[in-house]
Amino acid sequence: xxxxxxxxxxxxxxxxxxxxxxxxxxxxxxxxxxxxxxxxxxxxxxxxxxxxxxxxxxxxxxxxxxxxxxxxxxxxxxxxxxxxxxxxxxxxxxxxxxxxxxxxxxxxxxxxxxxxxxxxxxxxxxxxxxxxxxxxxxxxxxxxxxxxxxxxxxxxxxxxxxxxxxxxxxxxxxxxxxxxxxxxxxxxxxxxxxxxxxxxxxxxxxxxxxxxxxxxxxxxxxxxxxxxxx
Length: 230
Hints:
This protein is an all-alpha fold. It is built from 12 helices and no strands. The protein starts with a helix and ends in a 14-residue tail after the last helix.
């Protein structure tokens, strides 16, 4: 019997967020330096959900202190740690190390600057979720078969997706452009976020992102007729 979602989140929800940051990354945390994966988790969580850091520290430490016994294993009521390339015998000590790093970050108030550029695949998607949905869904390798051109794909997104999500995408585009990356890094960014076709000619990746933000951000308020009463 697996746990219900609410119980899973209460026990392991934030632990699962931390573990997810390690997918595709090395779990090479050391006492003097957190791994690239944990730094990415800290960087994003400090600005998006700072309250979650204490939850993560508590859940990780509790799991390390009380690993699942035979009964919980048999019932399926436990968190299955993803494969991080580490022997099972070392997982407990690694969890204690993660909890210590998170605790140190909170107690020292080591807040990364908001202008920091994402460094891992997980961090790109955590920071720009709607942009990843847009690029991966509308600009995959199937895009030329589904749409006449880039403009048609943009128009389809704008006309079929809830306008609050469109507004969220425009905000994420402006946040990405505010990082002022060079074009090589913008090309890397759109690839990390799921874009599998080249930007619309003759635009560079950064210029194309700005074009998309401008096209989708043209919101106009709707007003009543002049002189109308209620």
